[in-house]
């Protein structure tokens, strides 16, 4: 099998040029074709000599992967299914809003973190995605030219695949790459502290942390990661960083009926986040098969939001999108995996 060019950084492309005996500037030309233009084969790189294209074609391929399935929701959300290795699939969601088009990308195939409420977690860990496979989820969708924001909130825990995630952010933000502002990129984590610190050090993208409850015992039941990295330690680390300017930190809070929606939770959240400039995004829980968890009523979510705002924590309720197409991450690929294996 030929190696893919798509997903290589400029430095790696310079290595390819050197290996093939091509001038160094060829790397920049290839990067332009890969990340700024609308082609899908080496033969279309018309400013490269025929000989150069032949040499490249011998060992490398362009490397884009088309989606194997696309589902559209009545609300405009689209879900893309991309094939990876061994008949496995990853999901990408495209969420159009008034002023932005947000793509939600996957960073792993399945996930090993075992969060109770998550369908991807139930698949277990199947493998890591490469930077190329992450960026392909942006380049190979119908709306590739209209993407304004990227969130790493699809399948997998991005900080469990940090090197490839950082490389994908480099490709998305570098001048030789997609040249996007890092302020348009948000990476979501359940709070793996060492990787989070490396991410904060090496990237300028926004950080989102899945919080879901401020109490250790409740969080341990929902998210096994709490045992290794308790939420107060995660937040203590975050407080050492400057989020007062352009870079943002936000907290995702899935609302579970009768579990994390009480005034006691508001009080503890307020204590935990005091002194930190941040926002909380409340997310309605949409039941996934095999969990006892349920969603609270609309008025409970609204009250929770109002109480947090009154305490001075900027809190919003995330609109539910694409429920008719299994937008809850992991459902569609699980379905596909099952039918591929039957
Ligand atoms: Fe993995 Fe995220 Fe699902 Fe937890 S919520 S199991 S980290 S994909």
Automatic annotation (TrEMBL):
<dbReference type="GO" id="GO:0000049">
    <property type="term" value="F:tRNA binding"/>
</dbReference>
<dbReference type="GO" id="GO:0051539">
    <property type="term" value="F:4 iron, 4 sulfur cluster binding"/>
</dbReference>
<feature type="binding site">
    <location>
        <position position="111"/>
    </location>
    <ligand>
        <name>[4Fe-4S] cluster</name>
    </ligand>
</feature>
<dbReference type="Pfam" id="PF04055">
    <property type="entry name" value="Radical_SAM"/>
</dbReference>
<dbReference type="InterPro" id="IPR027492">
    <property type="entry name" value="RNA_MTrfase_RlmN"/>
</dbReference>
<dbReference type="GO" id="GO:0046872">
    <property type="term" value="F:metal ion binding"/>
</dbReference>
<dbReference type="GO" id="GO:0019843">
    <property type="term" value="F:rRNA binding"/>
</dbReference>
<keyword id="KW-0408">Iron</keyword>
<dbReference type="Pfam" id="PF21016">
    <property type="entry name" value="RlmN_N"/>
</dbReference>
<keyword id="KW-0479">Metal-binding</keyword>
<dbReference type="InterPro" id="IPR058240">
    <property type="entry name" value="rSAM_sf"/>
</dbReference>
<feature type="active site" description="S-methylcysteine intermediate">
    <location>
        <position position="329"/>
    </location>
</feature>
<keyword id="KW-0411">Iron-sulfur</keyword>
<dbReference type="InterPro" id="IPR007197">
    <property type="entry name" value="rSAM"/>
</dbReference>
<feature type="binding site">
    <location>
        <begin position="156"/>
        <end position="157"/>
    </location>
    <ligand>
        <name>S-adenosyl-L-methionine</name>
    </ligand>
</feature>
<feature type="binding site">
    <location>
        <position position="118"/>
    </location>
    <ligand>
        <name>[4Fe-4S] cluster</name>
    </ligand>
</feature>
<dbReference type="InterPro" id="IPR040072">
    <property type="entry name" value="Methyltransferase_A"/>
</dbReference>
<dbReference type="GO" id="GO:0070475">
    <property type="term" value="P:rRNA base methylation"/>
</dbReference>
<dbReference type="GO" id="GO:0002935">
    <property type="term" value="F:tRNA (adenine(37)-C2)-methyltransferase activity"/>
</dbReference>
<keyword id="KW-0949">S-adenosyl-L-methionine</keyword>
<dbReference type="InterPro" id="IPR004383">
    <property type="entry name" value="rRNA_lsu_MTrfase_RlmN/Cfr"/>
</dbReference>
<dbReference type="GO" id="GO:0070040">
    <property type="term" value="F:rRNA (adenine(2503)-C2-)-methyltransferase activity"/>
</dbReference>
<comment type="function">
    <text>Specifically methylates position 2 of adenine 2503 in 23S rRNA and position 2 of adenine 37 in tRNAs.</text>
</comment>
<keyword id="KW-0489">Methyltransferase</keyword>
<keyword id="KW-0819">tRNA processing</keyword>
<dbReference type="InterPro" id="IPR048641">
    <property type="entry name" value="RlmN_N"/>
</dbReference>
<keyword id="KW-0808">Transferase</keyword>
<feature type="active site" description="Proton acceptor">
    <location>
        <position position="91"/>
    </location>
</feature>
<feature type="binding site">
    <location>
        <position position="188"/>
    </location>
    <ligand>
        <name>S-adenosyl-L-methionine</name>
    </ligand>
</feature>
<dbReference type="GO" id="GO:0030488">
    <property type="term" value="P:tRNA methylation"/>
</dbReference>
<dbReference type="GO" id="GO:0005737">
    <property type="term" value="C:cytoplasm"/>
</dbReference>
<feature type="binding site">
    <location>
        <position position="115"/>
    </location>
    <ligand>
        <name>[4Fe-4S] cluster</name>
    </ligand>
</feature>
<feature type="binding site">
    <location>
        <begin position="210"/>
        <end position="212"/>
    </location>
    <ligand>
        <name>S-adenosyl-L-methionine</name>
    </ligand>
</feature>
<keyword id="KW-0963">Cytoplasm</keyword>
<keyword id="KW-1015">Disulfide bond</keyword>
<keyword id="KW-0698">rRNA processing</keyword>
<comment type="similarity">
    <text>Belongs to the radical SAM superfamily. RlmN family.</text>
</comment>
<feature type="domain" description="Radical SAM core">
    <location>
        <begin position="97"/>
        <end position="324"/>
    </location>
</feature>
<protein>
    <recommendedName>
        <fullName>Probable dual-specificity RNA methyltransferase RlmN</fullName>
        <ecNumber>2.1.1.192</ecNumber>
    </recommendedName>
</protein>
<dbReference type="InterPro" id="IPR013785">
    <property type="entry name" value="Aldolase_TIM"/>
</dbReference>
<feature type="binding site">
    <location>
        <position position="286"/>
    </location>
    <ligand>
        <name>S-adenosyl-L-methionine</name>
    </ligand>
</feature>
<keyword id="KW-0004">4Fe-4S</keyword>
